[in-house]
Amino acid sequence: MSTTVPKKITLRTADNHEFEVDEAVAMELGTVKTFFDENPDATDEPIPLPNVSSKCLSTIIEYCKFHLSLRARGNDSSSAEEEGKVYDEELIKTHDNESLVELILAVNYLNIKDMLDTLNQGVADRIKNKSVEYVRRFFGIENDYTPEEEAEIRAQYEWAFEGVDPDDD
Amino acid sequence: MDELPENLVWEILGRIRKTGDRNSVSLACKRLYELDNEQRISLRVGCGLDPANDALASLCNRFPNLTRIEITYSGWMSKLGKQMDDQGLSILSGYCPLLSDLTLSYCTFITDMGLRYLASCSKLSALKLNFTPRITGCGILSLVVGCRSLTILHLIRCLNVNSVEWLEYLGKLETLEDLSIKNCRAIGEGDLIKLGPSWRKLKRLEFEVDANYRYMKVYDRLAVDRWQRQWIPCENMQELSLVNCIISPGRGLACVLGKCRNLEKIHLDMCVGVRDSDI
Fold it and tell me: Which residues in chain B have their CB less than 8 angstroms from residue A168's CB?
């Protein structure tokens, strides 16, 4: 094997698309890395990713490539950090609630910690300063309180937090 | 949400800090309510608690993992119902095993008895009392004897904290890192010597004398002279703030100033008697 040509790894998504990526990018995916760590003699067969759609995977690969290149730049860390933040914000912005959740599930399955943190924070930010109804719609959940139960909890919030300054942040 | 596994919902919810947001989330459904109960680590309540002790008990019961509690009765009037009293502090110590950071502001009904209940909070590391006029030095002493992990103690306008045995006790423990004594009329500059070996550990000291009372104090001259003989290194001191202090040249607090080699921030306001050579 030549050392100048980086080794390629092929990933196959749930909808049967194949992605050929550099080994370094593939190793960003914790699940893939673990597979190779445990099977050092694995053949060049494509790796099946049954829980990931091609749409999600291409977003994920872009993300990993971008953050790898930022890390490679190393020492001018403050501008790299800033660029990383801008990229992450843009990533969140371009996804609606539903596709964000889909992406989270894929990233969770592939075990990419930094990206998962970013996405989780994105979801948390979306339900800040929102009504109960918004939270229900966001997660697609049914209200399983009886009206009496709900009234009781609402009453508790009224007496408990009345007359107290809002949180600092 | 059914598609999101429990650990991810937990992760996302954990990033929501503001009380109002957490309240909304917990009202969405019972599953989120239970998650919120587990995750809620800080509570800030005040005048709305009525009847105070029962309300506090039901909150502490609902949120078993509270580590930070702030109870503030600023703006309280008697028509808002009785304030929390010593019984409330007994509830905190009984229901909140993880309590580490407690702030009590304008809790005018709590007494030394209540602080004795708090003494059993073994995890308590930060206590801030702001205008709790019934608390005396005895109460603080029983608390510092019980709470051995206390590293932050702030006393603001605790007008009746007179004796300073507690300060001497803390001095010997060598655990305190952040001490703030502001406008506690009965504690004078000279009392700080009681900190003894703890000067070495202290990272932050804030001492403010009530400007209207500073000239009325009788100084324990002997104590002030002892400062010169006592070698007090303050190598951990990063932040020192002295307001309205009377500093005898070359004595008392003046000896401390020269020994803070790693000081990052100093604030001297209306301090009489500091010489350039002391700094």
Answer: none
